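During the reporting period the student researcher (J.K.) took over the structure-prediction task from the postdoctoral fellow and processed the backlog of single-chain submissions. One of the processed entries is reproduced below for the supervisory committee.
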Amino acid sequence: MTRHRWLLPYLLMAPGLLWLAAFFVLPNIQMVLMSLSTGSISQGWTFAWDFDNYLGAFGRFPDNFRNSLVYGGMATLVCFLIGYPMAYGIAFRGGRYKTLLLFLVIAPFFTSFLIRTISWRILLGDQGPFLAVVRNTFGVVPANFSVIGTPLAVVAGLIYQFLPFMVLPLYVALEKIDKRLIEAARDLYAGPWRRGGAIAGSIAGGVVVAFVLTGLGYASLEEGGVVGFAAAVVAGAAVGGLIGAFLISESFVRVTWPLSVPGVFAGSILVFIPAIGDFVNVELLGNPKSQMIGNVIQNRFLQQNDYPTAAALSFILMAGILIAIFIYARVLGTEELTGGRS
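J.K. obtained the following structure tokens:
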């Protein structure tokens, strides 16, 4: 028995490996074969090394690819901006309420994804509470302003759905930081970072606002639109500068941030990957012009029965995801995901 103990790890991995082989490897092989096939659902499919499916996938759906990248990128960025302070507060200021706060973070998962999206549609509707406040009460937006059917609603839905995927990895990374390192940095005069924080915060705030407004389609070249866009960017830079000057310390820059970078990368991947492939939020909150590549794949598979094109699009999307994971593993090391040493 002792001689065969080396088999134990492989026996423990066997069920998982068999599961992956049956429900991941084999379906993906079938998907690749289908993406290189020709034919129709009535006449059958013939494997023909037809790479035109891939060329057509890139050439026919550039707007959908762009929407997926832009909406997924914006959702990831905003999730980070919301999730990092939230995770920081739970890790360093949560105290005995950490468990309760973490439960509140994951509480939405106890409800169906579809129900959460429909609820978001009600909140952002023309008669919903959001517009009742910003349009009817304060008059911040015009009387004909609507959220449903716009990229803003799609990105808002993505942020709401995937925010916990950003908070949890960030919390794990921040929780592992030895507080004595931060105290030592403060003792070595790593105090307020007024000038550097103001400059970095102003640049970051302006860039974030410009990116979000452009991605949502609110950057207009008309005279009034340019003025409004510039005013929003300046306001974002001012807010970012204030945050950087008064809330970011040198100990954070030198100690906390570098040690939390693995959580930032892990959270970004966990948000960006499902966000770029999502189709439910666009279907319920968006419009035909805001459709993402996930909507095209769903339409090609289930409505048009164009299996080769749908398979090619799916493989392209999966390949992009695998490349992102590979880059993460090469840059940071896979041990960071499990808490081991890099």
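The committee noted the following: The chain has 15 helices and two strands.
J.K. will present the remaining backlog at the next meeting.
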